[in-house]
From TrEMBL:
Signal peptide: none annotated. It comes from Chamaesiphon minutus (strain ATCC 27169 / PCC 6605). Pfam families: NADAR. This is NADAR domain-containing protein. It catalyses: 5-amino-6-(5-phospho-D-ribosylamino)uracil + H2O = 5,6-diaminouracil + D-ribose 5-phosphate; 2,5-diamino-6-hydroxy-4-(5-phosphoribosylamino)-pyrimidine + H2O = 2,5,6-triamino-4-hydroxypyrimidine + D-ribose 5-phosphate. Residues 4-153 form the NADAR domain. Coiled coil: none annotated.
Amino acid sequence: MRIYFYKVNAPYGCFSNFSPHSIQMPPKTANESVSKHWATVEHYYQAHKFCGTKFEYLMTQIQAAPTPEQAAQIGRSCQECYHPDWNLRKCEIMYRAIWQKFSSHLDIQQVLLATLDAEIIEDSPVDYFWGCGTDRTGQNHLGQILMRVRADLQARNAERTVMPDG
Ligand SMILES: Nc1nc(O)c(N)c(N[C@@H]2O[C@H](COP(=O)(O)O)[C@@H](O)[C@H]2O)n1
C-alpha cells in the first residue's frame, strides 16, 4: 500500500513539515544550555541551513517567522549563505526534527504507527529530493525519513512492552 501526502489540510497532512506541531529540541553542545522551541519542523530545518556560518542571525529570524511558509521563504532567500556541508547534513537534521515531532505528539504518532508497513510518499509536484516530484520518479527522502522514524518508534515501543524475566 502507498500513502501519498502533501498539503497540511489533506489526508495525512500531519506528515507535512508545515503541520502545526511544535518541537522542543535538546541542546546540541555543552555550550548550548537551553533547549529551543520551534513552531514547526520546517522552521527548524530551514534555520539549520545557516548553522555554523556567519549568517546565523537568519536562524533567529526563521525561528520567529509567524508561519512555516515564511520560515521557508527566508531559508531559501540566500543559497550562497548555506553551510558548505548543508547537503551532507540535511537528512540527519531532518531526521532529528521529525523524530522529536512524532515522539512528542502522541496523537500523530498513532497516525504514523497505524500506517504499519505502507510506503509513505511526499507527493510534492516540485520537489524531486524530498518528494516524488510531478512524475513520481523523485527520491522521496522525506517519506524515507518518516518510515525510518516509524520503524524506530515501533522498535522502541516493542522494547518498552517486553517484561523483565522473573
Ligand atoms: N507543504 C509544502 N510546501 C512547499 O512549498 C514545499 N516546498 C514543501 N516541501 C518541503 O520543503 C522543504 C524543503 O525545502 P528546501 O527546498 O530545502 O528549501 C521540505 O520540508 C519539504 O518537505 N512542502
